[in-house]
């Protein structure tokens, strides 16, 4: 089928926002052939998808619209994340990302910990999950077999409204579409084009387990289970990629102990090994060489009390049981680290309020609503930011920042943001494709627009910029770009190998660059357009150790167990070394001549001293919000900084060793843009357009007469 969905109001072609043509999909008929199931749902089905509800006691901890630094601080009670509304501990960062195997559908292995995930039969023990353990089960407390609960890859439970066979709905708040086939098979798809296909779990009659993951281009990963219902293999097309899971603990037979990558022609490769305590909780993660990468400990309630980084820094948690108007659960009440960082968390559930006090005596407050959405945040300086959410979809409708600036967000009926209003009254707009949940037209605050066109699988076909310049893309059957045609008609070509890795790039002039990989899919050679080759070598843990340049010279790298650079040897044999602390921060750098630069930090990770190669020391002082407040140079001179409520610098004072001062004042608008700079000898003003581009700089000296013209520099843009 080569048909395309076109939405071109200017040409009289409209697609109603109520109609789903060829896109968000339904298994209209149950089929038994493996890969064709995803192919069918990704290309054939036609249906109307009405908005529907998914309810959860735990708001999504992932980023939402408006998720900036301030929003992240508001929703997390601690730098090492604990949800400010639920008191739950989360881990989902790179330290627990075990591996990623290339493929047309890459196989990513990200472990996620949530103390609110009380499932006990998972492969890593209570609290832990990977995306391949998503499931559907009968909603507790209901006898209606059409009401199911989806357990996501983050361990969140989403209670769904009833779905009859042959029907489905779309949840704007979660960005998920749910469909149920005529024979009862379930499919859940996300806005990013990922599909989860479920099958009946033979060991649990009221549950559906994951059978296949796929995307819009019919790439997929298949899951295989043993007679005990444990995942034993996950593999893509032609077994690329392919992993096999091993379970070796008699006391805890559902805990995975080793994961191997399998290859078509070579021996299997151990990827990770996992260790457990007597209670069956994950307490150690090892790489293929036996290096301990992560360490964990828990209390008798399976709540995490320790996680340790590869460098050795320990993070500790204390817990208490709380019963409030919204839930009853274990919440984090204390946290400290080996380096001295300390926090106390005081929960007032009746008023839905949290007070966090650190070891320096600083306090901040978090307020939330009945849906566990943070509604107000007061920082350590007493500045308040407030948030306004929609009732059902939990979409951020507005935010008032600490300076009083108001942000407002407008959404379409599918939950996609269509308008962003900033404190200056500017509006950025987005129109979304009615099928693929991707931006179709984006208009910035200055009225510049970018238009996107998609093919029948949701791949980007063309982008037209504000100058009406058009860039077009062509794809292979896996959705990989094979040709790019730029606005001048020049063509670039790309070729991919069977593991989905780029093999060759041909530019508009016909020059080629080629990439070569080993059996473990690691890059081992790159040949440029002049036929010069650069080669790469690795250690058993997969860390880069050697680069052989085209002229034969060699660069060497040495990493610690966490993959962080600790030694560099240049082609001339000159060695630079880095010493790191338990959190991976650089403590010292020693160059090839033996000169040393040292860095000192306080318990909260703030740089407090820097000693250069000559032994001269710089000192740094920070304010209550961890912003740099003062720098003291080796000669006694100092710079002092002041900030506004949005953390933008508003004044810099330079003080000499004899006490003289030079003061620079900076003025900013509600959006944080610099509008004026005032010094003792001049005032400089800055003018921006609606797209934040600098249009004019106007400078007038303090001693200028009334008739003296200011110095002006103007800028223009295409």
From TrEMBL:
<dbReference type="Pfam" id="PF05593">
    <property type="entry name" value="RHS_repeat"/>
</dbReference>
<dbReference type="InterPro" id="IPR050708">
    <property type="entry name" value="T6SS_VgrG/RHS"/>
</dbReference>
<feature type="domain" description="DUF6531">
    <location>
        <begin position="80"/>
        <end position="158"/>
    </location>
</feature>
<dbReference type="InterPro" id="IPR006530">
    <property type="entry name" value="YD"/>
</dbReference>
<dbReference type="InterPro" id="IPR045351">
    <property type="entry name" value="DUF6531"/>
</dbReference>
<protein>
    <submittedName>
        <fullName>RHS repeat protein</fullName>
    </submittedName>
</protein>
<dbReference type="Pfam" id="PF20148">
    <property type="entry name" value="DUF6531"/>
</dbReference>
<dbReference type="InterPro" id="IPR031325">
    <property type="entry name" value="RHS_repeat"/>
</dbReference>
């Amino acid at each position: 089928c080569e048909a395309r969905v076109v939405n071109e109001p200017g040409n009289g072609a409209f697609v109603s926002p109520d109609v789903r043509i060829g896109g968000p999909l339904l298994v209209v008929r149950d089929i038994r052939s493996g890969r064709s199931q995803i192919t069918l749902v990704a290309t054939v089905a036609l249906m109307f998808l009405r908005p529907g509800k998914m309810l959860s006691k735990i708001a999504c901890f992932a980023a939402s619209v408006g998720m900036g630094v301030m929003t992240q601080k508001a929703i997390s009670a601690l730098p090492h994340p604990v949800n400010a509304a639920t008191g739950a501990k989360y881990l989902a960062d790179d330290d627990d990302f075990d591996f990623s195997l290339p493929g047309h559908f890459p196989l990513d292995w990200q472990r996620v910990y949530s103390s609110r995930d009380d499932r006990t039969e998972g492969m890593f023990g209570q609290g832990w999950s990977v995306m391949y353990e998503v499931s559907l089960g009968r909603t507790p407390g209901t006898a209606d077999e059409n009401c199911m609960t989806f357990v996501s890859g983050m361990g969140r439970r989403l209670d769904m409204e009833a779905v009859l066979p042959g029907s489905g709905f779309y949840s704007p708040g979660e960005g998920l579409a749910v469909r149920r086939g005529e024979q009862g098979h379930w499919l859940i798809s996300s806005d990013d084009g990922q599909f989860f296909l479920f099958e009946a779990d033979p060991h649990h009659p009221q549950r559906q387990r994951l059978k296949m993951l796929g995307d819009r281009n019919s790439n997929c990963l298949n899951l295989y289970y043993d007679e005990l219902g444990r995942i034993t293999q996950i593999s893509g097309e032609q077994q690329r990629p392919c992993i096999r899971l091993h379970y070796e603990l008699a006391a805890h037979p559902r805990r995975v102990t080793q994961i191997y990558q399998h290859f078509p022609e070579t021996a299997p490769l151990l990827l990770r090994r996992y260790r457990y305590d007597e209670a069956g909780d994950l307490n150690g993660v090892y790489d293929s060489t036996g290096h301990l990468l992560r360490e964990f400990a828990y209390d008798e309630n399976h709540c995490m009390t320790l996680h340790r980084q590869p460098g050795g820094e320990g993070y500790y948690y204390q817990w208490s049981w709380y019963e409030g108007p919204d839930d009853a659960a274990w919440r984090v009440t204390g946290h400290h680290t080996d380096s001295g960082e300390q926090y106390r968390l005081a929960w007032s559930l009746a008023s839905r309020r949290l007070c966090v006090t650190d070891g320096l005596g600083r306090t901040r407050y978090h307020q939330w609503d009945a849906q566990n959405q943070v509604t107000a945040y007061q920082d350590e300086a007493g500045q308040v930011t407030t948030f306004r959410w929609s009732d059902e979809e939990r979409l951020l409708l507005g935010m008032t920042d600490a300076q009083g600036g108001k942000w407002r967000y407008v959404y379409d009926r599918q939950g996609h943001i269509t308008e962003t209003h900033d404190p200056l009254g500017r509006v950025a707009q987005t129109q979304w494709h009615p099928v693929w949940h991707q931006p179709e037209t984006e208009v910035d605050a200055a009225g510049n627009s970018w238009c996107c066109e998609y093919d029948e699988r949701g791949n980007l076909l063309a982008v037209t910029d504000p100058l009406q310049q058009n860039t077009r893309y062509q794809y292979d059957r896996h959705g990989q770009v094979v040709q790019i045609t730029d606005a001048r008609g020049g063509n670039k070509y790309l070729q991919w190998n069977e593991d989905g890795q780029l093999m060759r790039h041909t530019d508009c002039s016909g020059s080629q660059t080629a990439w070569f990989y080993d059996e473990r899919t690691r890059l081992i050679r790159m040949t440029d357009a002049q036929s010069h080759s650069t080669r790469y070598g690795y250690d058993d843990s997969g860390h880069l150790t050697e680069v052989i340049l085209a002229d034969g010279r060699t660069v060497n790298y040495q990493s610690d167990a966490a993959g962080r650079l600790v030694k560099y040897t240049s082609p001339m044999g000159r060695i630079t070394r880095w010493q790191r602390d338990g959190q991976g921060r650089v403590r010292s750098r020693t160059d090839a001549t033996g000169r040393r630069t040292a860095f000192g930090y306080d318990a909260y990770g703030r740089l407090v001293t820097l000693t250069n190669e000559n032994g001269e020391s710089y000192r740094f002082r920070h304010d209550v919000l961890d912003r740099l407040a003062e720098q003291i140079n080796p000669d006694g001179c100092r710079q002092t900084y002041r900030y506004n409520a949005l953390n933008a610098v508003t004044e810099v004072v330079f003080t000499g060793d004899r006490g003289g001062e030079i003061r620079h004042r900076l003025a900013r608008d509600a959006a944080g843009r610099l509008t004026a700079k005032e010094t003792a000898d001049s005032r400089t003003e800055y003018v921006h357009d609606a797209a934040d581009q600098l249009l004019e700089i106007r400078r007038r000296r303090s001693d200028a007469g009334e008739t003296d013209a200011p110095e002006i520099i103007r800028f223009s843009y295409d």
